[in-house]
Amino acid sequence: MSALRARIAALLGLAAPVPTRKLTRDAAIVWLPPPATVRLPVAGLDLAVATGELVAAHALVARSPATARWQRRVHTPLGGRVEVVDGAIAVHGAPAAATIEGRHRDPGSLDRDEVVAAAREAGIVGLGGGMFPTYAKLDPAHPIDTVLVNGCESEPYFTCDHRVLSEHRDELDCGLALAMRAVGARAGVVVDREAYYPAGYERFVVRDQLGRDIPVRKLPRDVGALVLNVQSVRALHRAVCLGEPLVSRVITVAGGAVRRPGNYQVLIGTPIAEVLAACGVDPAHAAAIVAGGPMMGHGVAPDDVITAGTGGVLALTAAEVGARAEHPCIRCGRCVDACPIGLPVPLLVERPGPEVLRCFGCGACHYVCPSAIPLTSRLREASVQEFRWE
Amino acid sequence: MKGPFLRSPQSTRGLMVQVVVAASPALFAAVVRLGAPAAAAILSAVAGAVAVEATLKHRSVADGSAVVTGAIVALLLPADAPPWLAAIAGALAIGLGKAPWGGLGKNPFNPAALSRAVLMVALPAHFFAPAWRWDAVTAASPLSKEIGATAPSWTALVVGDAPGCLGQAAPWAVVAGGLLLVALRTIDWRVPLAYLSAIAAIALVLPGGARVTGHAPWLVGDPMLHLFGGGTLVAAFFLLTDPATAPMSQGGRIAFAWIAAIATMAIRNFTPYPDGAALAVLLANACAPWLDRVTIERRTQLGTSSRARRGRREWRVPWGRQREVSDGARPSGGTRSSRPTGS
Q: Does residue B129 have a pLDDT over 70?
């Protein structure tokens, strides 16, 4: 009977949306066992180690050339023997490898330069996915009055930032205080409200919290706001107070094909295949394996690893992916309604204009299209063309 | 491989099935009230539409759009339409209203309304004959300005005793189907609401006079007559909400419904035609591309589209508002900490 009801509902297009956040919302963060080998992508960086060298955990293994505009530093999360492969450093863990202990510091005694230097040396980058160096956002050239801690992870399935907010509030408060001191802000807001889909987009956080519209081609700092991801703020606290470089993050592993969904603290550089194996995913059963969110993430290649910007890994079933044949556009306008910046999506797909460059690829139009037209990819192609012309 | 990797369960085929399901109470009620001839007319209309669709090069019978067109054509037929007329109406809707324009989604005019308009001109005898019988009573539509038309009673309108088109045999069933479409979010609720409220408002304020209304002085000042008489309800829930021929933005759709309402009332009160709903829909369809241009294109050109769009609720990606803070101790929402706590 229930099968028949499900068939009728599916025919009417009423199949209930898959419970996405409920899967992991109450799953406390647990450490995933460290992998035997971590691989750290270091393309474009100067290596500080060579093949065969033995390194301690938390040791610096690569850094930007001194001439680079933005300084990046990569530390190994695992102690062991180094192997340099093209574009990446693999560290094969050794059981007895030591850990470099960072310098514990009292946050109250630091001035702004010390905070910025600690962020730079720890190699903290935006953990929301942008991976822009955090120390550069603490630049004093722009007066900033409010620091916003962005906990609006609006991608479905993802609850890792929510868990960090729930479980590590003290670390966040300390990190926020440090960020406020670094930029001289008077107010700090921890934002964990998430009312609609792309609410976590930086511009929308600033607009919704402060009522300030960021003009096209400007950044939050141009309207006096600094937006930092929850986990970046936590990493800032740990770097400054505990001397710990950025070597791990919390990810959500979920999706219909995952047997043990949850929130896991993982070492950066862990192969995604190992994460999936630890959570009980049979890759043959999953229709799509996605890193970084079902809307804005990308499909996983066999040898991909967890990077600082990977918010989670999803193994989705065919029902969740909802693959079906593309139909002609019926001009229903659902994409226009769904677009958070109000782009005339069908008109832009037919006849691209400069407006298309404002699309940030949230995927809402793709999601709602009843004719299953891959609108987001079409817009992406159109913006590539448009960019070339510009 | 780039995403997104999720899709809403709402498919084009699902939309078509929903419309057919929503139209079926009205069709079923018509069969109950009018008997076998109505059933024959409905089946002929659907068969005519599907038959023409099946002969096309780029046919899309499987998605159900031809069945939807046929069902809506049936709702617009005169209550005593013979099967051959119904079959022609269905065939015209696809063959003239949809196929020549490039098929599904490319037609500028509503196929069902276009087919009715063409037949009104070609075979006026079947559309303007005042005789409309059931229970052996013959009467003229209360919307017609003929001699012999009578003022309807309130209950007769709602229950469907007032003469008119087939979809009018049970106005309550049309409303029920329409509300189902609203509940399923198949259609934008703003369209029927804007259309019906504008009709009622215009009915209340429109000046009267024998020159305007002919032999039907009750046409003035009675919103109920205009809401439940003629094809108003069918137009509100089934014609104006056709995605292909309506504007693509919410604001455009509201203006579109207002244009249709003004045209409907103008035709009813200032022309000899008894019911202007289908013609008004065609007129509004003609404005839709222009409404698209002034609403969505200009909006983005002005660069105002990043402004707050918090008011929108429809057809949004549905996982907003799902999250609650699970530890209960903290209110959900922004928490301010204005004083550094680490020092």
A: no
